[in-house]
Amino acid sequence: MKKTAITFLIFTQLILLSSCNQGKAADEVKGNEKITEVKIDSVKKKAQATIDTVDYNKRMIALSNNDTTGRWPVKTPYPLPGALLPYNRIIAFYGNLYSTRMGILGEIPREQMIAKLQGEVAKWNAADSTVKAIPALHYIAVTAQGSPGSANMYRMRMPFKQIDTVLKWAKPIDALVFLDIQIGHSTVKAEVSELIKYLSLPNVHLGIDPEFSLKNGHVPGTKIGSFTADDINDAIDILAKVVRENKLTPKVLVVHRFTQGMVTDYKRIKTLPEVQVVMDMDGFGSRVLKRSTYLTYIYREPVQFTGFKLFYKNDNWNNSKMYTPEELLKFTPKPSYIQFQ
């Protein structure tokens, strides 16, 4: 695996560390619902709406591509009604509005970007008519830094006005919004907690990036960071509380990964009815390397759902090409989340 190189964006005299786009190699659409009724003390009461479990199980088996190892589909609690997965496939554009180098979201003008995103959604709908492809804007709301900053946390929180802008862009195309965090020397709990007012909105979900989580004093970008199961569970607990308190449909949590050390103790990652966890293969490189990374760190360490990242520039080099939807649908399991950078 090639050593990670650092891309810096100069912004208000701080260094904005580019996520995933330089030198990193790969190492509410509802489901069917039903209402049941129960009698208690001769008084008829409505039980909570539940998903159609037969349909859900069928869809999960289809996602597993009939895996025979017993790993997939993962046995987890059924989600609350209104869950996005496995009924939909999320097609996301990733980036930051202050940078043209961190991803397609921010790299090109809004109208051009939206049209391109809708084109990718159409390709996935054509490739798989059994799972509806839906658009998403995946915005890096907390960026790791090469300098400590005033809080000595090696991270920068983007102004809320930028998140508001992304929400406005998402509305006309009925897109989901993901807020992504790179914690630097901070913690998942601290950074996610700052975004609760946005996560309390029905269409806003969360991404967390262990690459820039440095626990031993290292500067982000000088080495690849990591999350423990406890770090990821902190995000899950916060999201579950937001769902319960606001009576929302389940939140999606995307966890980026492209090395073994980026996520530890994966078997202890919680699975709850309120949160759907996507482990996203986040590296770039040759097609063989990317497939191998997906097999080694995503397929062999199952959590719940899977994702796959595609790089418009870094995957199209040295006679290599990005995977097509038809090719990715042959993977085991089929990814439920596709991110473009």
Give the helices and strands, then pairings.
Elements: E1 8-11, E2 14-17, E3 33-34, E4 37-40, E5 43-46, E6 50-51, H1 53-63, E7 88-95, H2 104-107, H3 110-127, E8 132-144, E9 155-157, H4 160-170, E10 176-181, H5 188-193, H6 196-199, E11 204-208, H7 229-246, E12 251-257, E13 275-281, H8 287-299, E14 305-310, H9 325-328, E15 337-340
Parallel strand pairs: 7-8, 7-15, 8-10, 10-11, 11-12, 12-13, 13-14, 14-15
Antiparallel strand pairs: 1-2, 3-6, 4-5, 8-9
Q: What key phrases describe this protein's structure?
A:
TIM Barrel, two-stranded antiparallel sheet, 9 helices
Describe the structure.
This protein is α/β, with parallel strands linked by helices and 341 residues long. Helix content is 26%, strand content 23%. It has a single domain (52-340), classed as TIM Barrel, CATH 3.20.20. The strands form 4 sheets. The protein has an 8-stranded parallel β-barrel with strand order 7-8-10-11-12-13-14-15, surrounded by 4 helices. Strands 1-2 form a two-stranded antiparallel ribbon. A hairpin with a 2-residue loop joins strand 1 (8-11) and strand 2 (14-17). The longest helix is centred in the middle third of the chain and has 18 residues, at 110-127. This is Lipoprotein. Keywords: Signal.
